[in-house]
Design a protein that fits this description.
The complex is a heterodimer. Chain A is of the alpha/beta class. Chain A has eight helices and nine strands. In chain A, strands 3-2-4-5 form a four-stranded parallel sheet, sandwiched between helices. A three-stranded antiparallel sheet of chain A has the order 1-6-7. Classes of the chains: A alpha/beta, B alpha/beta.
């Protein structure tokens, strides 16, 4: 899932200063599951902002709503077609949702209420951890399911650096050394010999380093004349 | 230009080699670093020049190397993968070679979060293994990573790497050295050795694999300047092991500084006895003036001459 953290209230309040009628819009998928940008958090943010406004002498008119996925036009259209005229929408979606909303609703101002942090999963209740960078060239087959690009702080492909000690990464005793995990996993499967092979420099052009990416699937594309809605 | 580095020639002549280390300053005024280099002139074959060590911005390793070459001294240019992508690393390798740098030490680099620019973007386009291999291919196959050919050959660069017997997983550390040798490393310098028993266990593995015959291994030695410094290395520097007994020994000494030097000398003497150790790398950062005494008392002075 995509994980996000709500921006500090002071930062949100500052960006909302010029506006009066505000809609705080939750997103019903990833950020709901990671407990930062769903319906409940939209209401909490509204309540906190109302209090803040009262204290700071700012009389905001705040409503809330939620869209199942702010990153898809069909959900945006379904929920927004009859919307009243807000001055501004504070989106609690990830950066993908905020941008999709902006693209779909260019007449509106949509601001981000979250910092999108990473792609990851809930390690335990209340803890989420990053495990994919979307590099566009998956190597999880080599490492049996532990990503060295994401989980090694230095994205090393050829084994642990000299900063690995007692299973921890040099950057923090809270961070596991990915290469210790890989070594243990490969050893357990009697495949540790794999680490002897020199992995060549990675082709980063499949990642964001090749520029913003677009995926085209001609087989499922709809011919322009067949399209039922007009993309903005 | 085509002659091998002095360090490489020392090894070829069968001598036990000594290298020193210089940390560039946070300024373009290199007087102090030149002064330290001068003090060590007759005591080391070559000088490591750190590359923004611990991710602190300093004068570039290559910039200091140019100064050393002007002084008739031999640099070992450290190149980390943290701050430069493959375009810049390959370009800098050529640039440094253009004014006579022969020795390159390829390493991963401390993570940027440690330094004085903790908001930096860590590059890590290549890893240290790939950088070693890249240098080898530029020299031996005349080719860049992307496949283009060098317009002129790059002969006789001496490719170094680092090895850390004190990092984990311990049982993988000799294998990691083997991989670096396969990638092209000709000499390695180790992390500072304070736990010499563990170093010896690592060397045993290294010898079993025959690696000591394929790569020149230089043991890293750092004199302990104070109990505080030892404690700092023990608790705050990743990939280091500083045994408690050693700290207690320094603590209990009448003259702690003298004891620190004595420990360094003893370590070097013990390293000289270990089969497969081909030299020492003395890292006396912020205590550079002690290098001549350490080298002398270790029985390594005067340094042999090579052609």
């Amino acid at each position: 899932m995509i994980v996000g953290e709500r921006k500090p209230l002071a930062e949100i309040a500052e960006m909302l200063k010029p506006f009066s009628k505000i809609c705080i819009l939750g997103c019903g998928t990833c950020v709901t599951v990671c407990l930062t940008g769903g319906e409940k958090e939209a209401e909490e943010t509204a309540a906190a902002l109302t209090l803040w406004g009262q204290k700071e002498g700012k009389n905001w008119d705040i409503s809330t709503g939620t869209i199942l996925r702010q990153c898809e036009y069909e959900y945006i259209d379904e929920y927004t077609k009859d919307w009243p005229q807000y001055d501004v929408i504070l989106s609690l979606a990830c950066g993908v949702g905020v941008q999709t909303m902006n693209t779909r609703l260019p007449e509106k101002i949509i601001l981000p209420g979250l910092n999108t942090t990473f792609m990851g999963y809930p390690l335990e209740q209340g803890v989420w951890t990053e495990n994919c960078l979307g590099c566009g060239n998956c190597v999880l087959d080599l490492t049996l399911g532990i990503c060295p690009i994401t989980r090694c702080s230095k994205s090393m492909l050829n084994g642990p650096c000299g900063g690995s000690q007692e299973g921890k990464c040099e950057i923090s005793s809270e961070v596991e050394c990915a290469w210790q995990l890989i070594y243990d996993r490969l050893t357990q499967k009697q495949l540790a010999g794999r680490m002897d092979e020199i992995q060549p420099p990675k082709d980063w052009s499949t990642s964001h380093h090749g520029g913003p990416r677009t995926m085209v699937r001609e087989d499922v594309r709809v011919e322009p004349e067949e399209q039922t809605r007009t993309d903005v | 230009m085509n002659q091998k580095s002095k360090l490489e020639r020392m090894f070829e002549s069968g001598h036990f080699a000594v290298s020193g280390e210089l940390g560039p300053p946070k300024s373009a005024d290199l007087e102090t670093v030149r002064h330290h280099a001068e003090d060590m002139r007759d005591y080391v074959e070559a000088y490591n020049i750190t590359d923004n060590q611990t991710a602190i911005v300093r004068t570039s390793s290559i910039g200091v190397a140019a100064n050393l070459i002007q002084m008739g001294l031999e640099p070992i240019v450290q190149m980390t993968c943290r701050d430069r992508n493959r375009i810049c690393l390959q370009s800098d390798l050529l640039g440094a070679a253009s004014f006579g740098v022969k020795n390159f030490l390829c390493l991963q680099g401390d993570h940027g979060i440690f330094g004085n620019e903790s908001g930096t973007k860590n590059v890590f386009d290549l890893d240290s293994m790939q950088l070693i291999n890249c240098a080898k291919k530029m020299r031996d196959d005349n080719v860049f990573i992307g496949g283009d050919e060098l317009e002129h050959p790059l002969p006789n660069i001496f490719i170094g790497a680092v090895a850390n017997p004190f990092a984990d997983p311990f049982e993988y550390r000799a294998l990691r050295l083997a991989k670096k040798v396969a990638a092209g490393a000709q000499f390695v310098q180790t992390q500072c050795i304070f736990d010499i028993d563990r170093f010896e266990r690592w060397m045993e593995e290294v010898r079993k694999m025959g690696l000591h015959k394929k790569v020149k291994i230089m043991g890293g030695v750092t004199p302990i300047k104070s109990v505080g410094a030892a404690r700092y290395m023990q608790n705050n520097v990743s990939g280091m092991i500083v045994p408690e007994e050693l700290i207690q020994r320094i603590k209990g000494a009448e003259d702690r500084k003298k004891e620190g030097i004595k420990v360094a000398v003893e370590t070097i003497q013990r390293l000289r006895e270990i089969e497969g150790v081909a030299g020492v790398h003395v890292m006396a950062i912020a205590w550079e003036e002690m290098v001549p005494e350490i080298v002398d008392r270790s029985g390594l002075y005067p340094r042999p001459k090579v052609d």
